[in-house]
Amino acid sequence: MSEPIRKIMLDEKSIPTAWYNVQADMPNPAEPALHPGTLQPLGPADLTPLFPMELIKQEVSTERWVEIPEEVRELYKQWRPTPVYRATGLEKLLDTPAKIYYKYEGTSPAGSHKLNTALPQAYYNKAAGIKRLATETGAGQWGSALSLACTFFGLECVVYMVKVSYNQKPYRKAFMQVYGAEVIPSPSMRTASGRQVLELNPDSPGSLGIAISEAVEDAVSREDTNYALGSVLNHVILHQTVIGLEAKAQLAMVDEYPDVVLGCCGGGSNFAGIAFPFLADRFQGKKVRLVAVEPDACPTLTKGVYAYDYGDLAKLTPVAKMYTLGHDFIPPGFHSGGLRYHGDSPLVSQLYHEGFLEAQAYGQRTIFEAALAFARSEGIIPAPESAHAIAGAIAEAKAAKEAGEARTILFCLSGHGIFDLGAYEAYLSGGLKDVPYSEEALAKSLNNLPKV
Ligand SMILES: *Cc1c(COP(=O)(O)O)cnc(C)c1O
């Protein structure tokens, strides 16, 4: 038998020329987004204060392939195609008959998959004459990616950063400032939404829902400014499909096809990015399981409800049908800031609801155990978010061992954890606890869903 190929590389000519749009193949059309004021279906004009027309079109497009602009593809070449690794070290550690592969998105200069969508978003805004982008960031990865993308396209960037992360991760802030962004801890006094939260709770740790309200308010209040979101929206999901398209080509190079594909799931973009190109095959009758892995402290798919809800606390964003914990649900402050969103991608939600996707949830101690096992066997220190996918892959590999069967596992390693060493330190010193969400708070926030 030949040695397994450890690292499967494509050359830059193999970067996809088009993104895959799952809306072309869904058995039921995507549920429409609603206007937050009237709760009537949104028209394109409702979104123009926030997004350029090209992104609005992508939001509702049912074209199967959307061409990647040449300028964006040129910039992708800086780090794409990303490698697919065979996790030989992890396989040995687990003593499993399963083959484990992972697509490593942490090789991007911003450290995660988020640059895949930050670049096209900055590109389309620039092309539409916009001068400045406002956004929010949780753990800091999205803010970092957008800061860099804005610099490449000569745009200003203002980032509302969830306060608990701002305090936990000072170097993330510096990272964004190096790329030229202005970084503001949220909730802030800058916006009416922020001031309202601070009045009620001066010590609010912030949440993505609050930070989104602030960024949207900033964007709506200025002609030269648009808003950019790092996950959830259909156009973001679209851009992230470069991950799965490349991974499929890479596995084909070693005559492999996965039995199961996993990704961690916050707003759903890296999971959908790796999973949807395989879902396309499943729509054609191919057998492949697609598993989203989320934190049990913010269990949107596994414990939330499928309903229309606002994307933010102040109800400024469109109302979308999605799995949600309620727009005023504030998850406890655990160490995977990128997974603390109350909602989920409407596309992921609908396809999960229709039975095409699976979901699992793990506590953060399990997550850090998996992260350490991975770092010590594969050498890469994963982002705590990405470690959810690792935990899911380990569970699959163990199940394969128990069943005594071969199984090919592919997961997305969405980013590195070099800025998360504070969390690792807490885990290593025994200071990291599983933080349950409050059942009572969840029931209360689910009461506040819009009546559609
Ligand atoms: C933002 C982020 C996530 C969560 O966002 P998704 O849209 O669910 O992918 C996961 N991993 C990393 C490294 C991130 O930066």
Largest sheet: 7 strands, mixed
Uncertain spans: none
Query: Structural class, from secondary structure content?
Result: alpha/beta
Strand order within the widest beta sheet: 1-4-5-15-10-11-14
EC number: 4.2.1.20
Cofactor: pyridoxal 5'-phosphate
GO cellular component, one term: cytoplasm
Protein name: Tryptophan synthase beta chain
In short:
With 452 residues, the protein is α/β, with parallel strands linked by helices. 41% of the residues lie in helices and 16% in strands.
Secondary-structure blueprint:
Layout: E1 7-8, E2 18-20, H1 44-47, H2 53-60, E3 65-67, H3 70-76, E4 84-86, H4 88-94, E5 99-104, H5 115-127, E6 132-137, H6 141-153, E7 156-162, H7 163-168, H8 170-178, E8 182-186, H9 192-200, H10 208-220, E9 225-227, H11 234-253, E10 260-264, H12 269-283, E11 289-295, H13 300-303, E12 305-310, E13 319-324, H14 346-353, E14 358-362, H15 364-378, H16 384-403, E15 408-413, H17 421-428, H18 439-446
Parallel strand pairs: 5-15, 6-7, 6-9, 7-8, 10-11, 10-15, 11-14
Antiparallel strand pairs: 1-4, 2-3, 4-5, 12-13
The protein binds pyridoxal-5'-phosphate.
